[in-house]
Predict the structure.
Amino acid sequence: MLHFEDFLPGQRFEYLPRRMETAEIIAFASEFDPQPMHMDEEAGKKSILGGLAASGWHTSSIAMRMMIDAFLGSSTSQGSPGIEFMDWKKPVIAGDTLSGFSLVLETRALRSKPGIGVVRFRNEILNQTGETVAVSECPIMFRMREAG
Amino acid sequence: MLHFEDFLPGQRFEYLPRRMETAEIIAFASEFDPQPMHMDEEAGKKSILGGLAASGWHTSSIAMRMMIDAFLGSSTSQGSPGIEFMDWKKPVIAGDTLSGFSLVLETRALRSKPGIGVVRFRNEILNQTGETVAVSECPIMFRMREAG
């Protein structure tokens, strides 16, 4: 289990690649973001996104899952107070294969919550041609080793 | 259809209330954010969130859907380049009923994309006791009326 003390600035966690399938893009959009360019191939091609494109919230949720599988799922994560920013830099088009990484920016103990520390991450998602499609920075809270 | 020109600073779009069910919280978490406090009642109670709590990405995706139903679904939205920030201020616990609103902050034509304008929104999600559980600000692109 990764505790707060195990995270060091500059450390990098690589995500496993994941293909974005047409069916899952449409399923997510149907539930949470039913805009034409996320639901229909033709509407996507006519839009400024240029094809059937995943909702930014879908890409962000997939990025969360990639973080879980890469390192967060075997950590003492206590969740996050929010996202500092999330840039959707390029469309994620059906059939794209995403990969990426989380980089540790800084770590600090939380005075207000003894036994908890905050780690700030920069998270980048790339497509199969190496273009960055999404970038975010966010703090995540972890239990400290001595608190256990 | 709401076009870019129809959005004015200070305008407010109210969301319809929506109850967050245990089953949907667990289903979303299983797919995108399988951390114990989003998957299991007991783990949630033991965590700093205090109960079975929705993933922040689930709350954010639900907020997206509330925006679609409130106004975005009957607009010329062309999507968003990202989120300026998203604060998850309070846990969203199974059984909570969410509501909220989007407030127009400012509007401007995009010089780089003729016929497209950007509207910046502040989006607030409240729970049934009136506490703000999530706040975000984001730009959304809309087609202009004359471009049609």
About this structure: Residues 56-70 of chain A form the longest helix (15 residues).
